Amino acid sequence: SSLSKSLGLPKPDAQMKALWDTGATVTGISFRVVKMLDLGPTRKIEMISGTDTKEAVDVYTVDLLLPNGLTLFDLPAVEPPMLGRKELGPFDIIIGMDVIKIGDFAVTSENSETWFSFRYPPGKHIDFLNAPPVFRG
């Protein structure tokens, strides 16, 4: 994913690694993103992390360009202190349910490869429970 401060990208190398996180309520950006894009916070909110730790975090307004070409303008994004630390992996963006819920998000597997896909606008529901079983020989 790429972030931008305005309609265009600030520079060609602004692509960043993102983690699509269904356990995150909101989208988050790292301190590195804040500095790279010279963002200023719009407000502070109290956030509860996955470890039930409560802390005040800055909120920024960003434009998020997804790999499928969809751009989300004026998206609020928090700056959780743990994002961007090496032990959490090479991610600068967490895409949370605030983004995931506006489209269709699917995880599928074939030939021992797991893929995920996101589309907007959303289409029809996928119901694996009532689908006929698929057997492979």
Automatic annotation (TrEMBL):
Question: What's a Pfam family this protein contains?
Answer: Asp_protease_2
Species of the source: marine sediment metagenome
Q: What is this protein called?
A: Peptidase A2 domain-containing protein
Name the Gene3D superfamilies on file. Acid Proteases
Q: Please name the InterPro entries in this protein's record.
A: Peptidase_aspartic_dom_sf (IPR021109)
